[in-house]
Amino acid sequence: MALRLLHTTPAIITALIILISSTTKISASPSAVGDGGMRRDGLRVAFEGWNFCNEVGAEAPGMGSPRAADCFDLTAQGVVSHKVTEADNRLGVGTPFPGVNPKALKNPDLYAAEKELYLGSLCQVSDTPKPWQFWMIMLKNGNYDTRSGLCPENGKKAPPFNPGRFPCFGTGCMNQPALYHRPTALYNGGTLMRGGFNGSYDMSSNSTTNTASTSYFEVVWEKKVGSGSWEFNHRLRTSKNYPWLMLYLRADATNGYSGGYHYDTRGMLKILPESPNFKVRFTLDIKKGGGPKSQFYLMDIGSCWKNNGAPCDGDVQTDITRYSEMIINPATPAWCGPANIGNCPPYHITPNDTKILRNDTANFPYGAYHYYCAPGNAQHLEKPYSTCDPYSNPQAQELVQLLPHPIWADYGYPTKQGDGWVGDGRTWELDVGGLSSRLYFYQDPATAPARRIWTSLDVGTEIFVSDQDEVAEWTLSDFDVILT
């Protein structure tokens, strides 16, 4: 509506501005994701499956490469117009597709990476400042057959070694899962959209029936046409053979290396957020926590830079994956403590930029840290120290794992055990940029500080070697990354 103003006084103009502002929602802060708040009717969502060291290893029989997508537009006529076919989703090693590198046709790891790019091209949405592709459902199997020699050690090829350190029932324990897809369709007379992925690592099970005592995963998304947010309903169950499973919903970089990978990826982050200038907003409702070993991440952020602060370039021997994770399961203890300072970062920085050393037992917030571990290839670590598992990423990694604590209040993070846990669903607005700018990350002495640019942000759980079958269930919606 155009307003024509004749002979108006400043008071009238002010009143009109107030009236227009009160009836028009104006967003002063841009979103870094393509589908800010998950409110677009035309959904873009993909699936990726990984083995212990963020590779594929081998495809599951009859399932194709463990990459799939459900991308569609809702037409003006109320028709769900899919961009990805089931034949696309079943593409596997040896089967060519447009743009595939011939070298990838016989290599399951390379083929999956190329398939993700292909699915991204089918799903891509034009936007400013760059196009975007999809939300990513990540599923990972924590079994590691140490006799296989499949996983590198801090980025270097490692020989087989004796079993015992990691869960594995024997040959084949690192398998990819059976994956089933329910393409998004209309329900309730065309007023509701719903679709999903589900499956199991126990390949002998009937994964579509969700049989008890076998591993199971499921993500179902649904949304009312024309209103509200997509709700992603997650379910994850461990089993005797698969006691360590991970399931996350991620916003990844639209190109380049996402957190934990050394392949070009596709995702939802059309603008890469950089510390300290961003916040993350979402609604989380945890129905079942997944037991005492469930390291449920209210927020998990990942990036990559070298120990000298330079950006990663794909060299797995010098690239370092950096993670920060807020764990909200109240059963998760602080491994960092005055008697275990090797499990703590060397120092803590307060919101007013005061540095507190970890040996300052009167002031260091030990209860705010579950565990800190340094990159396994760092050359100048302050003793005592813990180094991160050298096998579970393609390159060395660094972890800063946090727990609810009053020290995080200024950033909007949970301040006490139980905040946001089962029965306490809520909408969070986290100053992830502000907090991540003050966390300790290792860097070689006398090097320029790395730019903390985050290529993956996700919510979900890692059920960490459960000693009994456990189930986690949660709903995530309204996810947005807001630049400040």
From TrEMBL:
InterPro entries: DUF7705 (IPR056122). It comes from the Eukaryota. The keyword Transcription does not apply. The keyword Signal applies. Residues 1-28 form the signal peptide. Coiled coil: none annotated. Residues 31-483 form the DUF7705 domain. Keywords: Signal. PANTHER family: EXPANSIN-LIKE EG45 DOMAIN-CONTAINING PROTEIN, OS05G0272800 PROTEIN. This is Calcium/calcium/calmodulin-dependent Serine/Threonine-kinase.
